[in-house]
Amino acid sequence: MKVLFIFYVPSGGVETLNRQRSIALKDVGITCHFLYYENRRNYLNEHYNPVFIKNDEEEIINLIKKHQYDAIVITSDFKMVPAIKKSGYKGKIFVEIQGYGSIQQTRYGFSIGKTLAENDIDGFLNPRTPHISTLLSEMFPNVPKYEFNNCFDCSHFNYKATGKSFVQPIIGWVGRIEDNKNWQEFLNICFLLKRKLRNQLQVYLFEDPTLSLPEDREDFFKVMKKYHLEKNINLLPNIPNEKMADYFSIISDSGGFLCSTSKIEGAPLTALEAMSCRCPILTTDSSGIRTAVTHNVTGKYYEIGNPKEAVKEGIELIQNQTLRQTIINNAVSHVKTNFAPSLYAQNFKKMMTSTLPVSN
């Protein structure tokens, strides 16, 4: 069985998921190919299976005809569905929704999808994201929905002891410098934490500058300067995924945590990476995060728009060692149990062979 996965760019959570499921699905006899419309970076993370970079519709259709895929999974891009159907492709087509921006943006995207593709797809794939599930049920009541957790392989991406002692806790943040990631609030939290910890604070900010607008970056540096965080923040652009485990482990050993300030998110892949590396997470309730984080069990929540509460919860993660270790241990166990690659592979294969929705 051969499946083609299509997405815009090899970056962010979808790329991480593709790399993970490339290995997981091989164990159940499914070969994965990956197509991205463009690559804005000068490197490509290992996918363990063929990767194509094409944005010409005719070239894409020729690729599909050449490889005779049993199924095609298109992440977010409804506009590709009519072209594939028009080409005479007879296999299954699934639209995967890993995240779509705000609820308003998601609703708008789905309204376009209803016009373009509602009658041409065999189902939706969604990693149990609450707001996505609700909107899919409302707007596509007659299209099958397949809902199960993404996979995450803890055996390859996990904690690596640094053997170092740290004077200052390190706070991590991962994302694009754009509105939904809520970077403004993150900088406010850093400012308050810095004051609370008497300037004993370092920040690792992981980003892909190719995915942000120049005006947003200009605003970011203005706010960073306003809060006098220039010496505290380390900008780390385009870190290869295989090196992120080292960074999350450093944050863990420093006594810090990963902070997620997003307004709305689909799948919690960054959170899973941190949790697997024993790096605790403080997060907003961004919908998709709920499958990963339970407050004071596998991580911590704070109310979005309330940076003072974020600081309070963050300080507890730093200073309350008993709670910190309990959260870390619970988080690792949760990822291993509920996001196991073997579980994902079983669910995906059911989706490929069954006409009934798979929900897990």
From TrEMBL:
Keyword annotations: Transferase
A Pfam family of this chain: Glycos_transf_1
Keyword set includes Membrane: no
Boundaries of every Glycosyl transferase family domain copy: 168-331
A GO term for molecular function: glycosyltransferase activity
Coiled-coil stretches noted in the UniProt entry, renumbered to this chain: none
Lineage: superkingdom: Bacteria
Protein name from the UniProt record: Glycosyl transferase family 1
Organism: Cytobacillus kochii
